[in-house]
């Protein structure tokens, strides 16, 4: 018999096997098209940023933001739906599956989704000559850290609410501003000093800076261990919150 965490992972993968076609465009094709249009098209007008061409500069940001957006998007309606409409988690609770297995199995599923997309994206960008350092091979690991740092707290949030209208607020006031002002498209240093701390509070900024350091072979603005530590802190806090939220929701 499979471990309960593995059983939960298998359940999500089984469902995804029936739905994967719907995610191909957003997970694989759209980031590449975005990279070509912005990195090459707009990059022709921007020129260089930080001494490198705009395509090479924006690649790590697009990869990190793709992981960030995938993690958030997958952790909203899917989690709430399995509680409120499908009641899949209630069914799991009637088996030997523990709450921690539900959360761990779900986050493993998110990791697999993000890692496949990251590896494909990395291969495509390599064909464009946008990778300037052999350290670029560690960017999928950074994408995994960003994914867990985003997915864990959002999963907890989705398990804590009963109305999906809150997701519009999450997308509008968290995901979109983080994507726009976390150094994906332009250096955070160009923001007013009073606004920069808001960028530093986003896990995406830490992921972008780590990815950019890896693909360009340059040191990140903060020590790498600090960036990694911040991402792990987001992930750990979200994991604790998610387990607590799942347990409370299943007792209702």
TrEMBL record:
<dbReference type="InterPro" id="IPR051784">
    <property type="entry name" value="Nod_factor_ABC_transporter"/>
</dbReference>
<comment type="similarity">
    <text>Belongs to the ABC-2 integral membrane protein family.</text>
</comment>
<dbReference type="GO" id="GO:0043190">
    <property type="term" value="C:ATP-binding cassette (ABC) transporter complex"/>
</dbReference>
<dbReference type="InterPro" id="IPR047817">
    <property type="entry name" value="ABC2_TM_bact-type"/>
</dbReference>
<feature type="domain" description="ABC transmembrane type-2">
    <location>
        <begin position="22"/>
        <end position="249"/>
    </location>
</feature>
<keyword id="KW-0046">Antibiotic resistance</keyword>
<dbReference type="InterPro" id="IPR000412">
    <property type="entry name" value="ABC_2_transport"/>
</dbReference>
<dbReference type="GO" id="GO:0140359">
    <property type="term" value="F:ABC-type transporter activity"/>
</dbReference>
<feature type="transmembrane region" description="Helical">
    <location>
        <begin position="106"/>
        <end position="131"/>
    </location>
</feature>
<keyword id="KW-1003">Cell membrane</keyword>
<protein>
    <recommendedName>
        <fullName>Transport permease protein</fullName>
    </recommendedName>
</protein>
<dbReference type="Pfam" id="PF01061">
    <property type="entry name" value="ABC2_membrane"/>
</dbReference>
<keyword id="KW-0812">Transmembrane</keyword>
<keyword id="KW-1133">Transmembrane helix</keyword>
<feature type="transmembrane region" description="Helical">
    <location>
        <begin position="19"/>
        <end position="42"/>
    </location>
</feature>
<keyword id="KW-0813">Transport</keyword>
<feature type="transmembrane region" description="Helical">
    <location>
        <begin position="54"/>
        <end position="72"/>
    </location>
</feature>
<feature type="transmembrane region" description="Helical">
    <location>
        <begin position="166"/>
        <end position="188"/>
    </location>
</feature>
<feature type="transmembrane region" description="Helical">
    <location>
        <begin position="224"/>
        <end position="246"/>
    </location>
</feature>
<dbReference type="GO" id="GO:0046677">
    <property type="term" value="P:response to antibiotic"/>
</dbReference>
<feature type="transmembrane region" description="Helical">
    <location>
        <begin position="137"/>
        <end position="159"/>
    </location>
</feature>
<keyword id="KW-0472">Membrane</keyword>
<dbReference type="InterPro" id="IPR013525">
    <property type="entry name" value="ABC2_TM"/>
</dbReference>
